[in-house]
Amino acid sequence: MSDLERAFAEVVSGWAEAGVALYPPSSELVWEVGAPADPAEDAPATSGDDVSADAISATTPDGGGSATATDDGASAVDEDPTADVAPSPDFAPSPDFAPSPGFPPSPGFPSSSGFPPSSGSLLSPSGGGSSGEGAAAADGAVSSVPWWAVVPTGAAPAPTTVPVPAPGDPGLAEAFGRGLVDGEADAAGASALEALPGGPVLAGLLGPLVPGEVGAATLVETIAAFERVASWATAMQAVHVRELTDRQGMTSRAADRAAAEVAARLGSTNAVGAAKVSLAAALDSFPEVADALTTGRIDSRKATVLTTREPGLTTGQQRRVVTDLLKDADRLSGPKLRNRLRAAALSVNPDAGVERRQREHAARKVTITPAPDAMAWITAYVRADHAHTIKTALRALADAAVDGDQSDERSREQVEADAFVDLFASVLDRGVDLAGHPLPTGRLARAGAQITVGAGTLLGLDHQAGYLAG
After folding, report:
1. The whole model's pTM is what?
2. CB-based contacts of 259, cutoff 8 Å, min separation 6
3. Are 166 and 6 in contact (CB under 8 A)?
4. DSSP letters of 100-150?
5. What distance in Å separates the CA atoms of residue 201 and residue 225, rounded to the nearest whole number?
6. Collapsing DSSP states into helix, strand and coil, what is residue 66?
7. Is 155:194 a contact under the CB 8 Å cutoff?
């Protein structure tokens, strides 16, 4: 086992000894060692109404192994069919935790403990493909982290003359300290950080570092490492938010109460609390995404994209699609992930696109959002062709308003904005709609503003700011 592999194993073991539980696992996806496969020949995700209804087949990202899961959650490992990985006692599930419906745990493995029993197809930090994914340790040791959660490596420069120090090794602090003047030390420190998943060990290493005292490569890896720590913190917070929600009951009102309590404690809006409750529930339904968020393979934005329900797909179908997307999720942006998810949804269910368009068209609306300095945003959520119709009309109105007048100092954007306002103001001025029908009299009142100014300011005794209601 290499130093890097040993360091990774120590980190995972440290989590168990400290009682730091990983997110509830994808319990019926049990990955097994198989013959090396060509990534181009990966079988497409199968479809079905429930994950447990059909067998699941997948390969590691670099084709280093294959895996199957049957409808009863059992799987045979090629090297030793009788072997099993017993979880640490510290990973015992809470008696109050209820696993997601439709995802029964694998035999002999608690549903809310660490990751499922692993085999050679789980990724190790330095084995397998170019990014250090897809193979077991050289001495036969098996990582307890599934491939979809392993932190990819290969971005940091690798040292050529010195080993990569492990957490707790005095050589790691020395590498950080010499990084500004020694390129090899800088590469060693950066590589050590790159291989560590988000969690308390990584956070403990990052805390003492001073940005101005580390090398260039280490500085970049500290930024990436802090992102993984933030992802881990988000995942751990989601576990606790889910527990809070479960204690409130199993109704929609329970979720509302939990969201309100979270928002009140954070001093934030109900929307922020609701978003945290929603993410916690989504991660409970997509445990592979939760695993990847816990280690920092993906961030919270990507987790939200992958767990947002795609119209036309059942939870089981989307879970298969999402698990396959996790192979590339670490290097794809949120919008690109969303596009791939939609494309995959169309391949599984060709009617998904129609359903999605119908749902979005039904959600069309116009909203006004207050902005600073007596301004506001007006937003119309309409069909794309209708939006271009509006823009074309505004351009024509702007051309007519200027009509070669060189004295008009307004910019093109300002003229279009004024034309937009004038269009609706003229409707109110005439008091009729576009077909010439009179408008309801109660709807003709112009907008007003209520401003409260202190007596001292009115008397010229002070200069306190006024208050704009609304």
Report:
1. 0.61
2. 270, 273, 274, 276, 277
3. yes
4. PTT-PPPTTS-TTSSSPP--TTS--TTSSSTTS-S---TTS---SS-GGGP
5. 11
6. strand
7. yes
Q: Which amino acid is at 357?
A: R
Summarize pLDDT for 110-161 with one digit per residue, the tens: 333 333 333 322 333 333 333 334 333 333 333 578 889 999 999 999 999 9
What span, in angstroms and rounded, lies between the C-alpha atoms of 76 and 68? 9
Identity of the residue numbered 218: T
What whole-number distance in Å separates Cα of residue 370 and Cα of residue 368?
7
d(CA 293, CA 122): 17
Query: CA-to-CA distance for 17 and 378, rounded, in angstroms?
Result: 54
d(CA 194, CA 125): 10
Which amino acid, 301? R
171-226: per-residue pLDDT in tens?
999 999 999 999 999 999 999 999 999 999 999 999 999 999 999 999 999 999 99
The pair of structure tokens assigned to 153 is: 């490596």
d(CA 190, CA 412): 49
Structure token pair of residue 1: 């086992």
SS3 153: coil
Amino acid identity, position 128: G
Task: Note whether 241 and 262 are within 8 A (CB).
Answer: yes
Cα angle 318-323-17, degrees, rounded to a multiple of 5: 125
Residue 113 burial (10 A CB sphere; 0-12, 13-18, 19+): buried
What helix, strand, coil percent values describe the chain, rounded to 5? 45, 5, 45
Q: Helix H segments across 326-411?
A: 334-348, 352-362, 384-402
**φ, ψ at 234 (rounded to 5°):** -65, -45
Match 């933030």 to its residue by tokens.
Answer: 230
